[in-house]
Amino acid sequence: MPDRAVISVHTSKETAERLGKIAARSSRSRSALAKEAIERFIEDEEAWQAKIAKSIEQADDCLGITTEELLRRARERYLGSGQTAAE
């Protein structure tokens, strides 16, 4: 048996009903559909986060400084040294 984990998801009654209708039309269980939706979301989210990380890396390369250093310089210039944005 494959390694499995059980999760519980709370959702609105409307969403549960919509999922139930799709499950009935496709002759699949609500759990199978939810599992597939979660797996698709994770794949999409991982791809999106990888694109963001690559964009930040490319920006750092173009600027010749890290994003963190750029933010530090901007805070220092516009907020004064020793202050944070929350202050």
What are the secondary-structure elements, in order, as H or E?
Answer: HHH
| Helix fraction bin | over 70%
Provide a count of the helices: 3
Roughly what fraction of the amino acids lie in strands?
A: under 5%
Number of domain modules: 1
Compute the number of strand runs. 0
Low-confidence stretches: none
**End-to-end C-alpha gap:** 55 Å
Rg computed from alpha carbons, rounded to a whole number of angstroms: 23 Å
Task: Give a written overview of the molecule.
This protein has one domain (13-79). The protein is built from three helices and no strands. The longest helix has 34 residues, at 30-63. The chain starts with 12 loop residues before the first helix and ends in an 8-residue tail after the last helix. The protein is elongated. With 87 residues, the protein is an all-alpha fold.
Short description:
With 87 residues, the chain is mainly alpha-helical. The chain has three helices and no strands.
Key features of this structure:
3 helices, mainly alpha, single chain, 87 residues, 0% strand
